[in-house]
Give the backbone structure.
Amino acid sequence: MVSRWGVPAMSEVMERAAPRLVRAQPLLRMADVSKRYGDVAALEHVSAEVYPGEVLGIVGESGSGKSTLLRMMNLEELPDEGRYALDLPGVPEDLFAMDGYARRMLRARHIGIVYQNPHLGLLMKNSSSGNVAERLLVAGERRFSVLREKAKQSLDASEFPLERMDAPPIELSGGMQQRVQLAKAIALEPAVLLLDEPTTGLDVSVQALVLDTLKRLQRERRITMVIVSHDLGVIRTMADRVMVMRRGRVVEAGLVDQVFQDPQAAYTQALVHAKL
């Protein structure tokens, strides 16, 4: 069965998925997305669906197109072709068709992102609380006391030490910088949280703490997440379903345990065996 967006129906997957998944319409849908940079095909006819409360993992080697796809989901880039929808009230059927201002406003209100490089998501010399408040300002909040309190709540939810909330990210460790990014990303309770290699470059012990925080937030708030990583352990820990990408195409997709325990595509088999 194929949906009208050209994406395979997920009814069978949803019936067998983890208990936290809820039968519903997809919250996020991308259909037939392609992108070229000169002669290089970054994405070729990629489709994806993410359901409310679900965590979708995307894995692949460098250059596979996974980060490009995430930037498309964050409306930072437009494709050469394809469609993108979020099942939210008052949101147009195709987000790619909106003008630049409308895309920026939708991204600010409904999509959160944590980048691999904190410099892409934070103003490194501003206070940590100020970085979180910046997102609230975009949504129209102007009262200082409210900005301060909401920033504090968001930092606390990301398990950031509140005694450091006025410290600028440039003075913080990599793990703490990621927590500031996370606090900023969840400040407006986004419909979708995007995570681009959120633990890469962190010490193993710090990686575990960040992943524990993400898992707790997902469990408590039922946040819909898309996480990109080259680390299969991170995907196995966080995700319900996984897409395996190579050279701009999806070569395999399914439930995490299913794909990692019984990979069907030769590339997925090589990827899994290389990590054993």
